[in-house]
């Protein structure tokens, strides 16, 4: 990021949320009890048939906001072309995928050998490494806090 901005005052912080965070640490309780969600996810773990789509951790998007984000991702093919974790099912906003082909894609997408699944597991590993002590998110947040602390000290000294 620093390379693109041409200065070093950018801190790429995220992901941050620990895997086993409490309700308070996650920003509040869910409408579905966490133990029910975990039990359901655990039941899907064997075949790894769950696809997680996250639009944020600190806010709840309105329906219009979620549609705008989804539309932007769809138009730009970010998940397909850049991250390599999605499968293109049709071209263009107005096209409609063939239901038979779409069904086949759903079934095939749960197979462990799919390149998209392998890439998603690689990204999962990278994200988990980032939040651990010494990881990139951990370090970036620490550097940001240090920089902000310096600003506070300078402001206090200059006001005396």
UniProtKB/TrEMBL annotation:
Under Gene Ontology molecular function, one entry of this record is: UDP-glucosyltransferase activity
Query: Keywords in UniProt for this one?
Result: Glycosyltransferase, Transferase
**Entries under Gene3D superfamilies matching the protein:** Glycogen Phosphorylase B
Coiled coil ranges (UniProt) are none
BP GO terms, sorted: flavonol biosynthetic process
Q: Which family does it belong to?
A: Belongs to the UDP-glycosyltransferase family.
Q: Would you tell me the protein name for this molecule?
A: UDP-glucosyl transferase 89B1
Q: What species is given as this protein's source? A: Corchorus olitorius
């Amino acid at each position: 990021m620093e390379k693109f901005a041409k200065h070093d005052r950018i801190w790429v912080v995220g992901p941050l949320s620990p895997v086993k965070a409490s309700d308070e640490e996650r920003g509040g309780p869910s409408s579905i009890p966490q133990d029910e969600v975990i039990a359901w996810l655990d039941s899907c773990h064997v075949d790894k048939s769950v696809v997680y789509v996250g639009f944020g951790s600190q806010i709840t998007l309105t329906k219009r906001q979620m549609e705008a984000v989804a539309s932007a991702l769809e138009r730009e093919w970010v998940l397909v072309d850049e991250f390599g974790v999605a499968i293109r099912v049709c071209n263009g906003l107005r096209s409609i995928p063939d239901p038979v082909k779409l069904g086949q894609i759903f079934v095939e997408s749960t197979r462990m050998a799919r390149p998209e699944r392998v890439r998603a597991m690689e990204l999962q590993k990278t994200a988990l490494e980032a939040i651990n002590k010494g990881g990139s998110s951990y370090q970036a947040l620490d550097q940001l806090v240090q920089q902000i602390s310096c600003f506070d000290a300078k402001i206090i000294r200059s006001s005396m």
